[in-house]
Amino acid sequence: MAYIGLGSNLDHPPRQIRNAMHALDDLPGTRVVEDSGLFLSKPMVPPAGPIAQPDYYNAVVKIETQLDAYELLDQLQHIEHAQHRIRKERWGPRTIDLDILMFDDLQMNSERLILPHPGIQQRNFVLYPLRNIDDSLEIPGRGMLNDLIEHCPQNGLKYLGTIEGYEE
Question: Is residue 168 in a domain?
Fold first, then answer.
């Protein structure tokens, strides 16, 4: 079981999220089990100061997959490329961003992949959508989801409804 974070703030973001979710469901040996619904959040402020950009649409999906963590990472990057993700600047706007948040109970720190995703406990646009999927979830090495949420205010995060039903 893996949890994938999806985010977009360019080129019809809700459609980008839907397209990425369908692409995840089409991966070999993989299926989307559940999704969080769609959220709207303010862009993260990078350490060097704000980058002017639109608000983000975010979601989290829970998937079952026969891929290993590195194979899944490769597939996520392929989906990003197919949806015209351009890695021009860190923290910048993007058509789609796909992150492995958790992969089973795996805890790892390699050059290519850190699990659970670093910073997961400070990101309202990850924690609140995760709660929509499973409010009793434990984040490996970080603690219980509900405890993490107590220390992570919503700060304007808005739930918009279902991903499939959301009209742009």
Answer: no
Active site residue 97: yes
User: In angstroms, what is the C-alpha Rg of the chain?
Assistant: 15
Domains identified in the chain, total number: 1
pLDDT band at 50 (very low <50, low <70, confident <90, very high): low
Whether residue 166 lies inside any domain: the answer is no
Q: What is the pLDDT of residues 96-142, one digit of tens each?
A: 999 999 999 999 999 999 999 998 999 999 999 999 999 999 999 99
pLDDT tens for each residue of 59-85: 999 999 999 999 999 999 999 999 987
Kindly provide the residue ranges of all beta strands, DSSP E only, lying in 45-156, ordered along the sequence.
56-65, 97-103, 108-109, 114-115, 138-139, 143-144
Q: Which of 97, 104, 105, 134 is catalytic?
A: 97
Residue 55 falls in the annotated catalytic set: no
Note whether residue 39 is domain-resident: yes
Give the distance, in angstroms, between the CA of residue 158 and the centroid of all CA atoms in the same chain: 15
Cα 7 from Cα 165, distance rounded (Å)? 17
- Confidence check: pLDDT of 90 > 70: no
Kindly name the residue from 26, 55, 87, 99 that is annotated as catalytic.
99
Among residues 18, 35, 94, 123, which one is catalytic?
94
Active-site option among 18, 35, 85, 123: 85
Residues spanned by the domain of 142: 2-161
Q: Is 11 a catalytic residue?
A: no
99 assigned to active site = yes
Asked whether residue 85 is assigned to any structural domain, the reply reads yes
